[in-house]
Design brief:
By secondary structure, the protein is an alpha/beta fold. The protein folds into 2 domains: about 375 residues, Alkaline Phosphatase, subunit A, CATH 3.40.720.10; about 45 residues. The protein is built from 13 helices and 19 strands. The protein has a 9-stranded mixed sheet, sandwiched between helices. A two-stranded antiparallel sheet has the order 3-4. A two-stranded antiparallel ribbon has the order 9-10. Helix 3 runs parallel beside helix 13, helix 5 runs antiparallel to helix 6 and helix 9 packs parallel to helix 12. The longest helix is centred in the middle third of the chain and has 19 residues. About 45% of the residues are buried.
Length: about 475
Amino acid sequence: MFSLLAANGALKLSRRAIHQLGFASLAASSRLSSTLAQDLSPAPHKAKRCIYIYLCGGPSQIDLWDPKPDATVGIRSEFQPIQTNVPGIMFTELIPNLARHADKLALVRSMTHTSTDHNVSSAHTLHGYPPLRPDDVYAAPTDHPAIGAILHKLKGETGLLPPWVILPRPFTTSSPPIKGQSGGFLGSAYDAVALNEPKLDSLAPKDLKFQAFDLPTGVGESRLQGRRQLLARLDETLASQSLGQRWETMAETASTMITSEKCRRAFDLTLEDPRLRDLYGRNEYGQSFLLARRLVESGVRFVNVFWTYFDDKGCQFNLWDNHGVPSAICGTGGVHKGRDMLTHPYCTPSFDKAFPALLEDLQSRGMLDDTLIVVAGEFGRTPKINNFVGRDHWPNCYTQLLAGGGVRGGQIYGQSDKNAAYVKDKPVTPEDFQATILHAFGLSPDTFITDMLNRPLKITEGRPITSIFS
């Protein structure tokens, strides 16, 4: 079944938490984003929905979409550069299918921040605020709301379908979900509906389907209704009225979604043409991309797709975190070099199949122009290749992708230096990137929401890249 990411108790702000929120606001005002001179013209209001694809671990900018063929040996990619369908924009041979869709993409090649830690960088990227402490990276009730929650609050409900869904499972690192996956101080009513699907390997069966909305064996709709009535009686006995109302809201949402034919059909991949499912790829991430398209087509406003660990017979490793030694994580001995990881069927080959399929599918349905597509990671990889022919963590300069939602395709924003090591022009922080996503929905950085103390807080401290929009 699915779970709603939230603390279930009444939310209380301690004095320490209040001070933290205040300090966070002050710190944000002095970050690099404040130095960006962006044209804050009215937003285009084209985006009606968003699919946010997160490549957990940090994809390599220099091995994918910012190749430097003139760099020296030991820095330039061992993968050959190829021309895309846009003159002057080159990718590498790892993503030939995506190269044929560069005319749909805006590449932000000047992303930058300062942390090399996965959790800190992921929290910064997904939440839009840098953690106050290295251990302050997990979702908490006092957080500033994530993008999906902000859109829910300001854009309203989406009918029977939830406004915000996480696929195929929340992004965690053997801990609670990373920040950026909850409604924060807006409360649990604004949390994502998160599927908690079991991890699958790259040899997933042809009939792969998500189980989130299947009723347990032996539980029919009449029995489910009986459970709802029992829960209603339990609600009446709860000591805290606010807690009872919170439980009731969550239970009602769950019950409605499980029993709604529209909801169940939206999550049912077996209704898709098998040939289209093949085009996306018969693995959990290819099918997650397809399910994301089904959901936004049915009315969901914001979908996160987290591309996390590959699970191979109990051995987990993150192929996007390409240091070149997955066996070090598995503890099975041996060495796998960087080429082996990047060319693994579950890494760039799967992405280069699923992402172009998503772009083509949305375009064929007339949805690409008002559906914002985001491809992001927490940082890039080092310019220097390490001893295992992999690359290590590098936040100083990396690339993110945007498409649809009013974004003008076939363009590059910002420049990296000759080694894709440092930003040469137009630096963009995670705060600015988040502000750009909100801008696509017509939301200015000066838009306010109120916290639990009824204080007005800006929805973002970043400054949007308005020039990439048509």
